[in-house]
Design a protein that fits this description.
OB fold (Dihydrolipoamide Acetyltransferase, E2P), 279 residues, five-stranded antiparallel beta sheet, mainly beta, 4 domains
Amino acid sequence: MIELGKRQDLTVFRKRENGLYIGETEEEAILLPASEAGSHDVGDVLNVFVYKDSEDRLIATAKKMPIELGSAALLPVVQTAQIGAFLDWGLPKNLFLPFKEQRGRIKEGQKVPVILYVDKSGRLAASMKIYGRLAVNGPYKADDTVTGLIYELKPELGAFVAVDGRYAGFIHRQEIYEKLQVGQTVTARVIKVREDGKLDLTPRKKAYAQMDEDAAKVMECLKSYDGVLPFGEKAEPARIQAELGLSKAAFKRAVGRLLKEGYVITGDEHIRLAALDKK
């Protein structure tokens, strides 16, 4: 059975001037336009994406699509209207984003995170209401590194992420030490897989692996203060966060690493480069 909104392998059954007719059976074969037919012939198996044309007929494309059924992606708005908006997804017929499926006010030229679904009329459409529509129980385990699209931010909770564009992930606000934005692609580590199959994530590596990067941040900050940081390890967490984008625990680990390696001298009220004392 040909599946709308998905990539699939279909066989060429007929070759005509307007293109190739492909499908799982000859009776259900659909058109792959001549402009994409290439040198393929009857019997070849092609990997294509299936959608509907302007006359509501199933049609295939060999193009690499930015989004598939049940997955999320960041797509540009090319037109807005009272009934909704239209998004560029690389096909002649733009993807419709109904007004009721929008979150907030959008405008032409803006890129918005959306998920692809089939509406009540059997057509493909986009929705910005992604939460609850992503898959769970993905092929991940704790400590795996994943990539995902941030589709929603709630300061009191954290960041909601579409891992690989398809699976439900979440970064708790306590794991966020740098500014994140909706539409941003993040690389994160899986902290755990919840019982419901959703993923708890952190943009930070394990402590031992993260320490080198954090130590480098401390060194850069020291240099910006001419080698003397005007606060020490007893500084308030908010000060450390504002200056370095680190938690207090991460800051202390990084300073401890630099102290052990002889790069800094520490005090309650300051941290200074050890090299200053050698001048």
